[in-house]
Amino acid sequence: MTDTSETGKRIAGIHGTGTLFKFMGKYFLISASHVLEQIDQKNEKNIGIPIDKNKPDLITLLNCKIYTFNKEEIREKCDFGIIGLTNELGESLEQNYIFLNEKNITFKLYEEMTIIITGYINKHTIFDNNNILYIPAPFKLMSRRKVPEKNYSEYDPRIHILAEYGKTLFFGGDENKHIPAEQELKGISGSSMWTIEDDSSVIWSAEKCVKVIGIQSAFMEEEYIKGTKWKYTAEAFKYIDTNIYSLLIECKSKAVSKTN
Fold it and tell me: The dihedral of CA 35, 214, 238, 83: what is its sign?
C-alpha cells in the first residue's frame, strides 16, 4: 500500500503476498482471506500490485470482485480468498508477471514432503535512497510437512498443511550450524505453499515439477507455518465459475487416480 499523508510523508507497507492465476482466459489473484478483507472502498485506491520492481506506481484493484467467506468460523479454518481481476488488469499485469494455471497445482500430499514458502516480509522492506521505490525483501523457506504431536485448536488435519518452522534454522543445510529463525513474518500471509513433484515422465524443470499445494495463512507458536490445502480453493470456484471449477476438479481426480 502507498499513501501520501497531509504532512507529505510517504507511507508504504505490505499487506500480504498473493499468487496470480489464469484459468480458461480469466485472471485471478489468490491470497489469504484476512489480507483481502483489508481492501474496501475506503482504501482500495491505495492498495494494489506494483507495476514492476523498478517503478513506484501501483496497479490498483478497482472494479475487481473479491470472494471471501461470509461466516467468520469458516474463514478461520479456510483462510483464503480470491480476487477476480478484470481482463484489462490481467492483461496489464501479464506484461511483468507470470500467471500460473492448473498445470502448476498438485493435489497430491505426502507425509514429510518438501514444502517451499516464499513471500514478502513487511519488516525487511524499505524505501530506496531517493524515498521513491519501495524495495521488497523476499522471505524464502524450504521446510517439510509435519503432523503435530499434540493437538491444536486451530489445526484441522483435513483442511490444513503444516510446515515445520521453529526458533532456529539450519544454515546452508548444516544440521550442526543453527541460526535464529525470523519470527516477525507479517507480510507473507497469502503466499503459496509449494512442493517438488518428482515426475519421472518428464525432464526435470522447476516449471514442470515445482507445484502449488496450498495457501499460507498463519504462524503457529514458533513451531509451524500453517496453510490451507489447495483443494479447498478449487472447491470455492464452484461459486465463482462452474467451468473453471470443473477443470480444477478434473485435475484433482487425475491426481488421486495416479496415487491409487
Answer: positive
